[in-house]
Structure formats: C-alpha cells, structure tokens
Amino acid sequence: LGLLNDSEPVRRSLDLPRKVLVKDITLREGFGSGLFGIGVEEMTKIAEKLDEMNFPAIQIEFRGHSDDVKRNFKIIKEHVVKAKLDIINLCFSKDWKEILDAATEVGVDSVCYSLPCSELEKKNSLRSESEAFERIVEAVEYGRGIGLETHLHIMDAPRTDIAFIKKACRTAIDTKVDGVGISDTWGVASPAAWRYLVGEVKKVTLDKPFSIHCHNDFGQALANTLAGVEAGADNVDASINGYGERSGMPSLDEVVAALTMLYGMETGIKLDRMVELYRLFEELTGIPTATTKPLVGKYAFSYHYDSRFTAYHVDPLLILPFSPKVVGNEPTILFTRYSGPVVLEEKLRNLKLEVTTDRIPHLLERAKQQLLREKKPFLTDQDIKALVWQIS
Ligand SMILES: [Zn+2]
C-alpha cells in the first residue's frame, strides 16, 4: 500500500515473525467492558462466524466451574469446527484447578495462565517471587497433565521487573509450556517501550510462541500490538470493536487489516467478511458500530465533494486507500452542503429520479438551503426524493 512500508530500510529495522496468530477475545474480554449482556445463543453465533472466517483461536469466558458454565461452553464448542477454544485462568485463585478440570471435561483446547507480579501486586498480595515461580511450574505441569495446551502471560508487564518476567518465562519454558507472553493490562506502555520490552523478553524465550495483550487506555492498543509484532511477537489478542475492560483492546479488523496490508503478513483470516461480522455483532448486541470506524464503519469510505467523485471515476485509488471490497465494505456517496451538481446528479441516478438538466441548479439551491436551514450534515435519500417531488 504505502511505498515505504515494504522498503528495505524499513524492513531492516523490524524483527517480524513469519506468521501472526490473531486470537479473538470478544467472548471473554468483551464482557469486561460491562456493555453487552448477550447469552449463550448470541455467543454461539459470534463464535460460529469467527470460525467461518478462519480465526485460529477464540477465547471464551469460563468463570467458575458450575454446571451452567460447563453447559454453555459445550453449546459453543458444538458449533465451532476449526478454531481452538481458549480460556484464561488466574492460577493464584482458590479454585484454579477445579476450573481447569471442568474446562477439560467440556473440551477446552488451551489455557492462558494470567500471572500478576508487579511491584504493586507483590506488596498487595504479599506474594514472593519464589512462590510465583513454584506456581508457574505447578500450573504448567497441571495443565499439560490434563491435556491442555498451556500458555503463561505475565500481567501488567510494563510495571513488572524485567528480570522477573524473563525468569518467569524461562521457568515456564523449562517446564515445557507451549507459549509465553506479556500483557499491558492497564495500557500504560508507549509503543517504543512496548517494542523494547517484547524484544528484551524474547531474548530468553527465543522461538517459543510469544503472545501480547494490549489495552487501550491511552488509545495505543493497536500501535502497541503492531510494535510488539515488529519486535517478534507472533500471537496477538484483539476483539470486535475493541471491546474489553475500560477502553478495551485493539479492534480485530484493524489488527488483521494492518498486519495483512501494511506489513504483508499472513493471518489466514478472511478479511473480506469483516463487515458481515460487525453487522452480526450489532444485530446480536444492539450496540451500533461508529459510522466513521475505520474499515467497517458505514462511512469509512464515504466522499461528498464533486472533485472526489470525478477522481473516483478516473481511478478509485485516487481518493481511497484501497478497495473497500477488501474488508467487505463499499464506498458511500453523500450529498452535503459542500457537494455540487456532479454529486447531486449521481444521487439522482442512484435513486432513479429524473430531473431535466435545466432544473438542476434550482434543485441544488433548494437542497443547500434545506441543509443549512435544518443544520443537517447530509440529505437522506428520502430528503432528496421529497425535494424532487416538490420542484416537479
Ligand atoms: Zn485484558
């Protein structure tokens, strides 16, 4: 896309992995937003769609180990064909083993242990580093023992001692963990700091799958996710619309599109079905997607100046970054107070309304007056139809 993205000096500064696995965590972290209250039926439909789109892993909320939790998970599992189903486990909680036992009973594929060990946490929980290392060994061995793929995640990594993170990851790797990773749980890392941290930890984790989980408290979740990939992280978390605790996560469509189109990386995910996924999510949760949301927003590829329309018909790439079809979207043409006769005539053609050429200036004048009078950003199709009816 951009001429520079693929250039030798830029590529040389990166340590990109060969492939990136994007895990959808909407059905776990998304609940942390407190903004949607969907049930198992809706969760199943979302999981099914993600699976159809080739998301390799989907994280599902698995809180506690009651019959309800197990039954709900089983229903989702029955509808997912290819994707691995993952859960997180707080391995310092009282019933962490009971939760894992319940999870294996109903077919969970992998577990991501979340380990808090920042200075603040240590002070608060009075937990020593040696206790943490012992628990890592116990948790990895236990998970492997009951047949789960196991991953270790160090929570709040930007506020945790780097030497501890490295030692924790090494301990897990020596216990044959399947992957390690770090979380920016409170979204406090700058992209530069995060890239440095991933690179630093990777020095001891070498070619073990390395995952990152970035929060958006400073609006840097996507930047940090990409910065982590630039430093070699090959597993990343993302959610629909970025829903997650507080201001959430990176938005999964933006992660997949950036990796594919800006970095030329393979994710295997069907990007052209993103809009379809977002519309389904809107329908099931009742939460609308922002109309200007990049990639999947209704007006993400809109234009309204006459000059843009003319250029579009010479070559769409004169006014758009890429074909909206790539993400399953389409361009939208709007008639605004800044549009001229060219856009107006196109709107009339689209609506199959006949207005003779000599009437166009009059219609244009009326349309602009209405926009200014009603303080509207643009005229709807209904508005235009009504205007044409009035002047005819
Ligand atoms: Zn999180």
Description:
There is one protein chain. With 392 residues, this protein is α/β, with parallel strands linked by helices. It contains 15 helices and ten strands. Strands 1-2-3-4-5-6-7-8 form an eight-stranded parallel barrel, surrounded by seven helices. α7 (162-174) links the parallel β5 and β6 (179-184). α2 (40-52) packs parallel to α3, α6 (129-145) runs parallel beside α7 (162-174) and α14 packs across α15. Residues 29, 185, 213, 215, 244-245 line the site of zinc ion. Zinc ion (ZN) is lined by residues 29, 185, 213, 215, 244-245.
Blueprint of the fold:
Layout: H1 8-12, E1 21-24, H2 40-52, E2 57-59, H3 67-79, E3 84-89, H4 96-105, E4 110-115, H5 119-125, H6 129-145, E5 149-154, H7 162-174, E6 179-184, H8 191-205, E7 210-214, H9 221-230, E8 235-238, H10 252-262, H11 274-285, E9 302-303, H12 306-314, E10 332-333, H13 341-350, H14 360-373, H15 381-391
Parallel strand pairs: 1-2, 1-8, 2-3, 3-4, 4-5, 5-6, 6-7, 7-8, 9-10
Helix pairs in contact: 2-3, 2-11, 6-7, 7-8, 8-9, 14-15
The structure holds zinc ion (ZN).
Q: Hey, roughly how much beta strand do the residues contain?
A: 5-15%
Radius of gyration: 25 Å
Helical run tally: 15
Helical residue percent band:
40-55%
Strand order of the largest sheet: 1-2-3-4-5-6-7-8
Envelope shape: elongated
By DSSP, the count of extended strands is: 10
Please trace the helix and strand order, writing H or E for each element.
HEHEHEHEHHEHEHEHEHHEHEHHH
Largest sheet: number of strands, sense, barrel closure? 8 strands, parallel, barrel
Distance between the termini: 47 Å
Secondary-structure-based class equals alpha/beta
Uncertain stretches of 5 or more adjacent residues = none
Bound molecules: zinc ion
Mean pLDDT: 96
